[in-house]
Amino acid sequence: MPDFSGLSPAPFAAASQERAEQILADRAAELAADIMFSTELVSFRQDDEAVIAELRDTATGDRQTITARYLVGADGHKGTIRDMAAIPVHGRRSSRPERTMFLQFEADLEVALRGEAFGLFYLQNPALPARAATVVTTDHPGRYVLAARFEPEDAPDAERLMDVVRTACGVPDLSVKILEAAWSSSGEHVTRVADAFQAGRVLLAGDSAHLMPPTGGQGGNAAVMDGYHLAWKLAAVLSGTAGAGLLASHDGPAPSSRPYDGSAWPWTST
């Protein structure tokens, strides 16, 4: 691993989404945030002073209106806020559709870790689906996640999934316990970026702003950084420490006037 001590006093660590989300939710509640599950954003409108949003409780159907100074669209790649804000996107799709299986399993792989707490293995093997797979440790000792691509029509059963794990790990008789198997939510690997990250009082973050293939948790890590950088700017503006112009930096440099043709970024720097 590279030496990051010059950049941060915190050492490298891995945190699962299920644990990280609970930690973040608990801390948000401590800071008096209202967390509403099973709630849908039906519509919103904005003016020079605020955003007025209509919410619906998906369990009861009850609706309520909330007024806020800003709206952050962090509703994922299937969210609606970006489209409601009339922000277009550009990007690329994979050459042919495939589905990615994320398989959580338990096995004794301590010999492969060689005493390390974290391991990320990119594997190539003709016997694997699509000839490749990724195995990564979790923050639960003895628990791992395997990611592999399958054909859209392929529906492997539990026995075949265990065979895939054994093949990936190189241990034909490995004792494997399958905990959970989940497909990626799209049959296509997509790289997509919003043309703008801000439209008035609406700001985008995470997959709503920039979508990438699900390999390696890059999207999740980028979303965390989005939240960090956007949060301190919003805090400064809302407290009156900075003017609203500070939020313009969330959108990055202005694109050039020429149309984007997909061959390169629409802006350049020197």
Automatic annotation (TrEMBL):
<keyword id="KW-0285">Flavoprotein</keyword>
<dbReference type="InterPro" id="IPR002938">
    <property type="entry name" value="FAD-bd"/>
</dbReference>
<protein>
    <recommendedName>
        <fullName>FAD-binding domain-containing protein</fullName>
    </recommendedName>
</protein>
<feature type="region of interest" description="Disordered">
    <location>
        <begin position="250"/>
        <end position="270"/>
    </location>
</feature>
<dbReference type="InterPro" id="IPR036188">
    <property type="entry name" value="FAD/NAD-bd_sf"/>
</dbReference>
<dbReference type="Pfam" id="PF01494">
    <property type="entry name" value="FAD_binding_3"/>
</dbReference>
<keyword id="KW-0274">FAD</keyword>
<dbReference type="InterPro" id="IPR050641">
    <property type="entry name" value="RIFMO-like"/>
</dbReference>
<feature type="domain" description="FAD-binding">
    <location>
        <begin position="8"/>
        <end position="249"/>
    </location>
</feature>
